[in-house]
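#random but structural
TW: two for the price of one
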Amino acid sequence: MFDSLFLSLFAFIFFLFSIYTFEKVNFQFLEKGKQFNLSRLCLIFIISAVILVVTIATWILLNQASEIILQYFYPSIFTVSFFFSCLLFLPKTKFWAFLDFLMTFIFLGVIFKFHFQILENIFLAFANLWVAPVVLKKLNIKTKYLLIFIIFFLLYDIINIYFIKPDFTVFDSFILGGSIVFGGSLLGIGDFFLAYLVINAARKDISKKIAVMLAFFIAFASLFIYFLSPDYSGNFPYSMIITPAVLIVYVINQIFKRIKTTA
C-alpha cells in the first residue's frame, strides 16, 4: 500500500510541477504557431501509420532484440529527451548547451553506477517536460486531435495487454527500463507521459483548477482502487483511467460553454 502511495505522490507532485513550468517558464524560443488543421483522411492515415509502426517496433524489441540492445535502446531515448527538457530552463547559448550535455551524462553516470531508483524516476519523469510546450504551444495542436490520440492509445494499450501479452518482465532488471517504480508498484512511462500531456492540455484549454483536479484523480486513482479492492493486482491498462476521465472533463466543459453562449 505504501509503495502505491509513494508512486501516487510522486506522480501528483510531478504533474503539479509540469503545470507550473508550462504556465510560468518563459519559453521565448517557442513562439505560438498556427494551429494544425489536417484533413480527416490525412489524420486517419497518420494515426494508422503511427499505430502500425509502434506495434511492429514493440513486437521486434520484445521478441527479436537481445537484452543488451534493449538495455541501451531505452536509456538512449530517455537521455536525449532529458537533455531537451533541461534546455527549456537554460539560456539558449552554446555554453549552456554544453553544460546541459555534461549535466545529463553526470546524472546518467550516477544512475548507472549507484542504481538509485528515485533518481531513475526523476530522470524518466523529467525527460517528458519538453513535450507539452512543443506540442501544445509551438505546434498548437488542436484538442480534438489530442482526444483522438488518447482514444487510439487506449485501444492500443488494451490490445497490447490483453491480446498480444508481451513479456514485460524482461525490463525488470534494466536501468531506465521505462517504468516509474516504487517498491512493488510501477507505472509505465507511456501511461505516465499520456497523463502528463492531457493534464497540461486541460491547463491550456480549460483552466488551472481543472488541470490540478485531473492530476489528483489520475495520480491517486490506482490507490483508490486498491482501497476499494485489496485483491486488485494492477494488471490493467492505466489508460482506462486516464482516457474516460479526460473525455468526461472535456465533454462537461463543452456543455458549459454551450450553456453560456445560449444564455
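TW: number two ↓
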Amino acid sequence: MIELHQRPDVILINIPGAAISTQNYYYAETGVYLYLMTQIVRPDYAVVCMPYTDLNFDTFRVIHNEMQSKFGCGLDFIHFSNVMLHAEQTRLTEKKQTLYRPAQEIIQQTKTLRKNNLPVYCALVDEERELLYQKLIKSISSEAV
C-alpha cells in the first residue's frame, strides 16, 4: 500500500463512476473503481461529488453507512453538483440523462444542509470551494495531532 511504503502527507485521487447505485435502472459501475482503489489506498477522508438531490440527515446516514460497509470510508464531505439525474429520461433511454439546476439554488441548499450539521458544499463557486478546503485542512490537521 502506497500510504505504508512511501508515507506521503496527502494523496488526492479522482475516482470516476458512481460509488453506489441510486436507481435500480442506472447502475453507473456501482462502485467498481472505488472498491479497487480502496484496496490499494486506505482513505482517511472522502470528499464525494454527488448530483443534486433532496438530502436529509437520514439519507446522509444511510449513504454514509453503505459506503463505510462497502469501501471502508464514509462521507466526510460532499460536493453537491448542479447536475441532477433525470430519472424518467434515464429509465426510458437506458442512458444517463441529466438536468442542470441554477448554481445559486444549489448553494442555498448547501447552506441549509450545513445548518443541519451535514458537511455539504458546492465547489462550483470560490466561496464554497474555499469553505470546503478549509474544513478539509482543519480535519486533516486535527487528525495529525
